[in-house]
Write a structure and sequence with these properties.
The protein has five helices and seven strands. With 199 residues, the chain is an alpha/beta fold. It has a single domain, classed as Rossmann fold (3-Layer(aba) Sandwich), CATH 3.40.50. A seven-stranded mixed β-sheet has the order 1-3-4-2-5-6-7, with helices on both faces. Strand 5, helix 3 and strand 6 form a beta-alpha-beta unit. About 3% of the residues have low confidence.
Length: 199
């Protein structure tokens, strides 16, 4: 897909502030510091569009980016970071749940998993929540450039096994450093958007 424009639109904390134009939305979610902002910037070929930080918990709102003036990328708050106050975490969880269960324009959620680590209970909980909300879900293994090819194959198997996935279920390997995974991810996104047009 050719990106003709990619602009930050707004940050949202409540349902009333969500965009009202009914354009398709593709959400990105993962535990804190999984590489969400880097992935978004890599997909959009824009270095500083989504703000990156070495401090986990940087994304604290639902952030909307307007792509090609046709659809939105939605950057959801990172989860699972212990040093965030409980009240803040509870608020994030409410925002996320409300959004995932009640947002009609939401067409897909990409769950980012650090390829170097075993998925956490929070990762499994998020994937289960998306299944319950009946949201099409893509699992993305980030930071694969930090692994050898053999390690990558092994870690993808560990991720699938840990999450109870079938051997043929898809986990997309992705690297913001090498660009691996960018083209297949855009192909999946294009298919989702095309299917939405046919609805």
């Amino acid at each position: 897909m050719r990106i003709t424009s990619a602009e930050y639109l707004k940050s949202v904390l409540k349902q009333d502030d969500l965009p009202k134009d009914n354009r398709p939305e593709l959400a990105f979610v993962g535990r804190s510091n999984v590489g969400k902002s880097s992935l978004l910037n890599t997909l959009l070929r824009r270095k500083g569009l989504a703000k990156t930080s070495s401090t986990p918990g940087k994304t604290q709102t639902i952030n909307f980016f307007e792509i090609n003036k046709q659809f939105y990328f939605v950057d959801l708050p990172g989860y699972g970071y212990a040093k965030v106050p409980k009240a803040t975490k509870d608020a994030w969880n409410r925002y996320m749940r409300d959004y995932l269960f009640n947002r009609e324009p939401l067409k897909m959620a990409a769950v980012l998993l650090d390829a170097r680590h075993t998925p956490t209970a929070n990762d499994a909980e998020m994937i289960d929540m998306l299944a319950e909300a009946e949201v099409t879900t893509l699992l993305v293994a980030t930071k694969i450039d930090k692994l050898s090819r053999n390690q990558c194959v092994k870690q993808l198997q560990i991720i699938k096994s840990n999450l109870g996935l079938e051997a043929d279920e898809y986990v997309l390997p992705f690297s913001s450093v090498t660009g691996e995974g960018v083209q297949p991810m855009w192909e999946i996104i294009s298919d989702i958007l095309t299917a939405n047009e046919l609805e």
